[in-house]
Amino acid sequence: MYKNFLIIASKLDEAGINIATALSQFKMSNVTIQFIDSEIIEDSGMPTELINQHDFIIFASKHESAKKDKTLSIHAPGNPSRRAELGGQVNKLCPTSAFLQKQLFENLNQLTEEHSLAEKYKVTLECTHHGPLINKPCLFIEIGATLAEWRDKRAAFVVAKTIKKTIEELKTNPYNEIAIGIGGPHYCPSFNKIQLNSNFAISHIIPQYCLPITEEVIREAISKTQEEVDFVLIDWKGVGVAEERDRILDILKKNNINYKKTKEIK
Fold first, then answer.
1. Is the peptide bond prior to 77 cis by the omega test (within 30 degrees of 0)?
2. How far apart are CA 46 and CA 168, in angstroms?
3. Is the peptide bond before 145 cis (omega within 30 degrees of 0)?
């Protein structure tokens, strides 16, 4: 597994600053914290040399949304579509870990409950989206969605404690089935349930609004998952029209990729 971790936060991002500052209060010999001058989604501002010296990168960041929902969220970066409006490159995804994302999500749910923040914040996965594009395995962990939440020191502490707990207790689980997800909305309700309450560990999630999906992106999501992928999980209703489901199934059959419907997962 990963031995040393780099936490990146932007000096322009109050949520990222607060998470990184809270994390710095813990004594962790295998963690480096780096503040950058640019927006965290911009490729040009990445400390490439420092990134290459570490095994796993965690981006601590704010989250913005039109609905301004209060969220603590986790996702892998990348652009599984024909647009790259927020950093990265078209149809390119970052490497990531299903094991680490699952354990980070479990710990974030647990600590949000323990610190009495569950009534205020929804803990959720997000689909794979935005930059930067880097060549090291990575994840985003974010506080959303307004200045009030970004300045919430209790939320920042819970996120920091989640990072600490996950890094210190990170383990491989030979019983986990590794998957990528396809379909559904941005906040992944079906995949949230599976990630938290089943034996599946999910890495990249490609939402309905990125469809029609290409064979290139499916292969990219699988190859950029650090663990060997066992299944593609399909949010059947969340894919939309039958023609799109059939097209996805044709791609999976062509590439000998197993799949399951999310509703089949206990």
1. no
2. 25
3. yes
